[in-house]
Amino acid sequence: MRRVPGFRSSDRGRDRRRFRGGFRGGPGGGSGMRAATAVAVLVMVYLLVIPLAVQVVSAVRGTYLPFGLPSSRWGLHNFADLYGGLGGDLLRTLRDTALFVGGSTLVAVLAAWGLAWLVVRTDLPGRNVITMAVIVPFVIPPIVRAQGYLLMLAPKSGVLNQMLRAAGLGGHGSGPIDPFDFATMTVVQGLANVAFPFLLLMPIMQNMGRSHEEAARASGASAWQTFRRVTLPMLWPGTLGVVVLLAMLLFGNLEVPLLFGQQEGGHIFSLKLWKIITPSTGELPRYGLAAAYSANFLVIVVLLFRVYLWATRGADRRAAVTGKDYRPVRLPLGRFRYAALALVALYLVPTTILPLLALLWSAVTPYAMPVTWSNLTHHLTGGAFSAALGDHEFWASLGRTAVIAVSSATLAVAVAMVVAYTTARTPGKRRRMRALDALASSSLAIPATMVGFSAFLLYSSLNRWVPLMGTIWVLVLAYSYRVSVAYRISYSAVLQINPELEDAGSAAGASRFAVFRRIVVPLLMPAAFGAWIQMVIMGANEFTLPAFLATPESRPLSWYLYSRIDPESAQLYAPGQGAAMAVIFTVCVLVAGYGLRLLTTRRTSARTLAATVPAAPAEPAAPVVTAASPVPDRAAR
Amino acid sequence: MSTVDTTTICLDVRDLVKDYPVDGASDHRAVGGVSLTIAEGEMYTLLGSSGCGKSTTLRCVAGLERPDSGRIELAGVPVVDQGVYVPTERRDIGMVFQSYAIWPHMSVFENVAFPLRVDGRRRTKKEVRRRVEEVLGTVRLADFASRSATQLSGGQQQRLALARALIREPRLLLLDEPLSNLDARLRDQMRVELRELQRRLNVTALFVTHDQAEALSMSSRIAVMDQGRIVQEGTPREIYQRPATRFVADFVGTANLLDAEVVERAADGWLLRTAAGVVRASCPDGTRVGDRVTMTFRPEDIRMHLSPPDAAAGGATMLAGTVDRVDFFGESVECQVSCGAAVLLVHRHPQAAPREGDTVHIELAAEGCAVLTDRGARLPAAAGPVAKAG
């Protein structure tokens, strides 16, 4: 690179050489912005890199905790155990995890692709209702969903098994579906996670302009040829990104393996990791071995993340350029419309309606019994609900859940906005910005299991000096690792802002930080608030992270709920109350999510109203929420 | 080139260079050694096609781009120099952007008050209000202060952007294609308004545009830019009537360009041999017989007679030709006339239009014929309405 001797000392604006001596701020630098960026990057490194580093250290440092124990020493014996004596075990874990995650991803993406295609690209009747029905489970806590599925599939009293028996599809008194079968668990995991890929695929299909397909038709291609040669290839990269993202999400999920995998799921990574650190017999947990396991899977995760980055490269920039008003052509289904509707119903009944029904049934009946009219009239009880509502610990854990979810979402969104502004608006410095972008996006790829475990190691090691273990603040920090969700949304939103709005701020005499605070932040607010709500809901639903970090004193509602339905937690076991709590919990999350959303729309419209002079029609401000962001309300439109 | 009195210099730019990296490998030179000087109260225009470096030059002056080398002095204060770089917010400027860059989350009032709020000085609410209302009055937006900025029409947003740029009372006003987003009628109106305001407030302005009509009508001086360099600087009349290069002649207005050889010094001017015939023209000092030059004249400077005139005006050249084509433009017709081996463009009032195939007589006044001073620009011949020597 050429050097111009005259341009060394400057207080800001080192467009092309700014980052030579480390991170020194956003576009144009400026001490305030530089400091904010430095802090945000440090927080991100702390949230994302440090725990994983501690995990790697643990893997090469003894059997138990990595620091502070006199017996700790450097060495590869954990890996020796893993590859040597336990080699067959590792291979089995790899195979079972690949089958479970791959199979459930396949099931979920196929279902989501078909549903998204039907509601976005065809004239299927009732599209809006179907969209809502597919999306709503996204907001239901995953542990509640898993619980609902388990109740629905219970061999004797499960409503689905009951229906199948009634239809003469095998089984006498129990079955035909065995919920603890490996295949059942895989399909359940897939069907319970359709909403997420559906939300991501809808905008991808919506944003595909009609002109490409029309051009193909005009070139003489039939509808099928157009679909195969134009539509599919154009949707392929986006779909691949969704596949990888979902696989990584499912990789880190503990709920379904924990509830369904007691017999055959013991070798699925997330459950295995959890079992290593919570041994049932009196032996000491072998953290080092677990870390070695996890380190192996980290390699796989990094490879998957590369695929994800490759599949989605430039997607935001493309969306920013083409985010105009598309109205995709809808394929007329004709006489196939009823067949399509039947297919949708076939999906919705066992995945959404029956699990919720089973959950409700469990909450209003005193013990597990088949769904019949006589059972309903004879045994209906509200006892579980009143017991749950009178339970002091229920309210305490609900309060903790709210505090943790709100604090972690706030921290993550604040950090994400600063970093997104820096990566999106630093001219030159491509490689450095790409690295920062990858760091900020990486939590999409890091399975929650691994983060929960790493954070457990980190805070256990730190506990001698900073006694955070067992407090909710460990959970706040751990939950904030999902900062990438807020980052991706903020990044797209920054790209939607016309850079001249910021230039105008500088030209009007505002420092870089003042431009960020007074112009960029207010313009990002709608998108940031959307991201915040999403992260609050994710935090409220979080189950995997507290599995590693929560104690009975700090556990959020999701884990208190689990202790109610886990037969091993002897004195707390009360599945009816658990179901009642699940229902209340779900209602709370739904109300909080949609209430907050309603609040934003009202606030925004109030601002518009206050400024509106009746004569002039208000021109809506530029939309800042990107098509790539999985924000439910946008997709529902 | 400039004869500006040094005490009133507002902006002085010397040897400005700005490169952009192209895919990491080679650099694209956006600005290649631009120098210019603007006096107080001037409306100085950078005119050129897109990608000629005019906006980059302006953004370097604003501090939104960092030049690779060169020196910029604003009101006597060096803002870019060896070891000196003053950031945008501390330069004494106001700027109007092509997109207006009106902040949609602020009211009209807040948009204008913004520069007062961020300059770190304490002011009473009353003073802010007084100054904002004053400048809104100047741009005729006094009644709109409480509106949301997004409710304004294009022309109003443009005036709001101007008010925001003026409220700091900047030494230099930077205008980056401020009229290009307006529709044609509004643009004409704003052009007049902007020029009038600039004169009334006596604010110095650096104006960037690709529109020659804007440049010619608004500027006190124009610099025509091409490929990162200023190719000619002068008053609008000089630029139009005495283009220095083939590029300027072609870019500003429509021009007939003829390669010519100086054959003889006449009493008032010179005689040049061209493909169209021998033409009388005024030549720059130092011209000698035998020089090969390019001469230029505007289509509207040609008088066209349908029948041979009784006598040509003194010093004018008469040429006979055939009309090949007539294009109707509304307020005029453009005729393509074959004249010897040359093809000339002639503008005429539509009511006196010839028909295709007519024989016409062309009268060229010596004052209307200029010889390009930049000899390097003679070859190679450019495309367009250009005739080659036979």
From TrEMBL, chain B:
Keyword line: ATP-binding, Cell membrane, Membrane, Nucleotide-binding, Translocase, Transport
Domain of life where this protein originates: Bacteria
Keyword Protein biosynthesis: no
Chain segments annotated as transmembrane: none
Molecular functions (GO terms): ATP binding
Keyword Membrane: yes
InterPro entries (alphabetical): AAA+_ATPase, ABC_transporter-like_ATP-bd, ABC_transporter-like_CS, ABC_transpr_MalK/UgpC-like, Mo/tungstate-bd_C_term_dom, P-loop_NTPase, Transp-assoc_OB_typ2
Residue span(s) of domain ABC transporter: 11-252
SUPFAM superfamilies registered for this protein in UniProt: MOP-like, P-loop containing nucleoside triphosphate hydrolases
One protein family per Pfam: ABC_tran
Name used for this protein in its record: ABC transporter ATP-binding protein
Organism: Actinomadura violacea
